[in-house]
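Meet the record:
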Amino acid sequence: MVSSEPGDYILDDEEISRLKSLNINSLRICPLYQMSTDGALRLLRPKEFYLSLIRKAKDEGFAVFLEPNLFIGGAGLQLSDPESIEKILAMSSEWAAIAEEEGVELYSPLNEPDLLFGRNQDLIAEWIRKTRELRTLFSGYLVLKFADLGPDEIEGIDHYDYVAFDIIWGDNRLDELREHLRRAIAKGGELRKQYGLRGFFFGELGAEKARVDERTQAEIFRTILEETWGKVDGYDFLGWSELEFSFKGREGEKVIAEWFSRPPPEVEPATVGEFPVYPMAAEAELPEEMKAQFGIDESLESRGYHVGAPAAEILDWYKAYASQWLLVREDSFSPPDRPEGAFYLAFFRKGDDGAFIFITVGARGYSFLGIATGPWSMVQRCGGPPAEEPMGREGPAPWLGKPKMEDGIDWSQAQVWEDPRGDFWLGEGSPPQVIEFPPSDIVRVLLLNDSQYLYLRFEMDGEFPVLPLAHDGDTVRIVMVDFLIDLDRNRQTGKAMRYAGADLALEAWFGSPPEARGELYYYAQYAFYDAQAPEEIGEWRQGTLVAGGVGADFVTLRFPLAELKLESGMKIDAFIFAEAESDLYHHFARDVLGEEKQWHPVEIR
């Protein structure tokens, strides 16, 4: 980026070609104001002049950094009147609205407010606080730009995207310059981390011609670039004009051309363990209450980050770029006490190593990212809210081990269906002969409800097996039990899972498809008929596996009654079946409760 504070850009073909030959991608444009002794603000050039510059720059493919600039009477005068903040804010608000309308990428409400307010800490803090109002006017990147390294105390800047420092150097003490730049990098990095900023950059870099010769100016530029390349998010060289800071046509321009022609610096990506951290994420404290909420054990390596990106964008990045890690499971939910909020969770695995991430949705596209890494056996135990809080659409959850053998439910008032043993079905997609596979043989099904939940218990002729399961040259991949519901008892409406009449499907699913690489997962889920969706089944939502499952000969499921559109007194019909799938057969084994097309009457009590 280059700056011309008075706006002395020509932007004719020759200048545009020259700027692009330097690999300049952004222009800083500064509407210049003067404050008179009575406090009135006067724009020194017509507003249309700056609008024209903004539009021409964008038409030529440059990003724009717009920043109103104010001087009071003469150079060096400063403001000490708190009431002037409101006048300046009105001016800044006007340009913020213009920046939004013109699609400006970066906007700073005021050039060097620390200098303008005489380094008065109270006035600077009040200015920072008042600029929060600008977020309602401008949706691009908001920049807080200080003279030199700014005041000693910089607080409450979380509504900004970037902080910028203006470093003007006036002699050949280059070792002192290097040390000053190191302090700038440390301070900018700390602010970025503390407030979750997108980053920090140098908002002005200059050397006045009256104080240094051409060679020294070039050495200052070279020192800045050597010391900070790859450690900051951008540079803005002052000035692209014929005034006191000009570097046009001098050795300094050649230094910029040399460095800006280089490929972007390679930055060692941050990791937690071996798991990558989202680019430009600012490390932050991971609160203990968040660790507890998501079940992150102290033995895991865990960190938190502020990220200037929407949660869904972060999750998409991990899906695309954490390519050496297998995405095992993906969840999302909204807390009951804050339905407008949302959490995204994902589990990744690479061999025996695991990574768990959670992302909280914040304001203005900001998010908080938590990462925990360690042995997969520990990572897979992390997670979200208790199972009784439905979490929306899920990926399969890893099966963690031994089943719970008692469900603690009094089934004495349940509706019960019994089914003969060994009554397997042969049909489309099945082997040429019956394969006796007890885990897919229904023995008994029980249904019970209270005012909140519907409970289902499937009892089988054999234990649900660990999958994948080798079987006579074939491999069994999936075992599932299903309870389909015809809500209106009309076989002409609804066709969930392609069963005529089915309006709703309840299911327990255990599987290890080839892409699972030998890992076993499960679903407890429900979904409604959707004519436009694959297999005419809509979005699956999570129920609860209460007991049983792999290693047991039964499974007990629970579903929220209201979300199933079921009420006390309703009479519905149910179609009930179990089946297993293998590499060779879609219906490796299948058992329907009763006859193949038999629906059973059910009463919700």
Observations:
- The two ends are 71 Å apart (CA to CA).
